[in-house]
């Protein structure tokens, strides 16, 4: 599966992408819908309208706390020699994550919707396009408050965290009405859900304690929240699903793994979605995956056999 991003002013000679007819999509393409300040509300309204049919929402937060796929879920704060993040208690791991999430800006937010079978919504890139393509979203965000910048998202400037927070609630994408109906997914949830919570609060610092953080997630998203990394570590004995997101996608045969890099938030949310759906179908088809709802890697104790 390959992915294509929407055209940007840099590649269209300054002509807004909405004035151009995109190339005819191939059946295996996934179209990355770039979202900016200009089209933030209508795109999130589209997402809200699709939730009854596509109730699985995977988010991927691309932030400035460090590069690399695995680094996106691990702490950036320097630790004493010989001390590993994995060996720290949950309270300490949360404290390190809070330092990073509070200090670093959220650059992009990838959003992928799918149904219970992993199928993506098909949308036209522009109203007059001849064919629809499977689509995911990538929200371009200002790196900090008060700064001004332009991005390729729909030909307009990047959105602010406050604008994103308002749009998520105003459109009903995040609403008590969706509790129990929408399943939220992230890979390495301590960081990606932490940055998503930062977005939902318009850039406010994370709660002071692990318990308050988990309560805030439940308050905004409800009880159906899954961390792909936590779930991947809880598959039956003899199965090892550890490593970066790109590695897991390739190992499990996720179509997103075939896309050429560099991946951005949109592609990574797609990969995380496909990895989660494959783990769910392969290892939790009989017992169900709901036992792991609300559990975040690093914040919850592993089962006895881990």
Structure description:
It is a single chain. The chain is α/β, with parallel strands linked by helices and 306 residues long. The protein has one domain: Ribonuclease H-like superfamily/Ribonuclease H (Nucleotidyltransferase, domain 5). Helix content is 29%, strand content 15%. The protein contains 8 helices and 8 strands. Strands 1, 2, 3, 4, 5, 6, 7 and 8 form an 8-stranded mixed β-sheet that branches. The two termini are 34 Å apart. Residues 1-17 have a biased composition (Low complexity).
Average pLDDT, to the nearest integer?
A: 82
Under CATH, the topology can be stated as: Nucleotidyltransferase, domain 5
Describe the main β-sheet briefly.
8 strands, mixed
Helix content: 25-40%
Topology order in helix (H) and strand (E) letters:
EEHEHEEEHEHHEHHH
β-strand number = 8
Number of helices: 8
Please mark out the parts with pLDDT under 50 across 5 or more consecutive residues, or reply none.
Answer: 7-27, 67-75, 145-155
Instruction: State the CATH class.
Output: Alpha Beta
Class per helix and strand makeup: alpha/beta
């Amino acid at each position: 599966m390959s992915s294509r991003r929407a055209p940007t002013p840099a590649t269209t000679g300054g002509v807004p992408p909405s004035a151009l007819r995109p190339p005819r999509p191939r059946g295996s393409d996934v179209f990355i819908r770039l979202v900016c300040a200009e089209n933030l509300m209508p795109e999130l309204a589209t997402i809200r309208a699709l939730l009854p049919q596509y109730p699985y929402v995977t988010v991927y937060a691309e932030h400035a706390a460090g590069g690399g796929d695995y680094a996106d879920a691990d702490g950036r704060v320097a630790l004493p020699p010989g001390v590993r993040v994995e060996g720290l208690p949950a309270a300490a791991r949360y404290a390190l994550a809070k330092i990073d999430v509070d200090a670093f800006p959220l650059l992009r937010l990838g959003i992928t919707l799918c149904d219970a079978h992993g199928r993506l919504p098909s949308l036209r890139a522009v109203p007059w396009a001849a064919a629809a393509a499977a689509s995911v979203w990538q929200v371009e965000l200002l790196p900090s408050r008060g700064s001004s910048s332009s991005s390729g998202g729909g030909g307009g400037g990047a959105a602010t965290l406050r604008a994103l927070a308002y749009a998520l609630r105003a459109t009903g994408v995040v609403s008590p009405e969706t509790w129990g109906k929408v399943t939220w997914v992230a890979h390495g949830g301590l960081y990606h859900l932490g940055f998503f919570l930062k977005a939902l609060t318009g850039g406010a610092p994370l709660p002071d304690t692990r318990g308050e953080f988990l309560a805030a997630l439940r308050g905004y998203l409800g009880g159906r929240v899954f961390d792909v990394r936590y779930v991947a570590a809880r598959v039956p004995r003899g199965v090892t699903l550890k490593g970066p997101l790109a590695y897991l996608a390739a190992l499990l045969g996720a179509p997103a793994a075939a896309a050429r890099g560099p991946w951005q938030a949109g592609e990574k949310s797609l990969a995380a979605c496909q990895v989660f759906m494959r783990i769910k179908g392969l290892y939790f088809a009989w017992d169900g995956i709901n036992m792991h709802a609300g559990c975040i890697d690093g914040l919850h104790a592993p089962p006895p056999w881990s």
